Amino acid sequence: MTEARRLDGLPLRAAAAKVPIERRNHAARKALSDRVQREFEEMPGTSLTVRQANKLFGTPSDVSVRILNALVEKGMLHVTRDGRYRRSSAA
């Protein structure tokens, strides 16, 4: 099994490590993370790029990347070879 890679070619964990951690508003971050998770649960076929997630959730790229990668780490999402985030079959 190959390791998931980001669009810039870095392994997912290395790419996530480069993104600064948001520490300003934990409640808002949790609410947004819960919303993103619900969207993928309610629409199991959803497959989003970071740019599409930015538009759907009204967030900047760095925020979308952090939230999506956190859901990948939880096992709820996985990243396809072309950089799309999809719901994991185990979720």
Shape: globular
Radius of gyration, taken over Cα atoms and rounded to an integer in Å: 12 Å
Second rung of CATH, namely the architecture: Orthogonal Bundle
Strand content: 5-15%
Going by helix content, strand content and strand pairing, the class is mainly alpha
CATH topology annotation: Arc Repressor Mutant, subunit A
State the order of secondary-structure elements, H for helix, E for strand: HHEHHEE
The CATH homologous superfamily name equals Winged helix-like DNA-binding domain superfamily/Winged helix DNA-binding domain
Return the CATH class.
Mainly Alpha
Mean pLDDT: 82
What is the count of structural domains? 1
Largest sheet: 3 strands, antiparallel
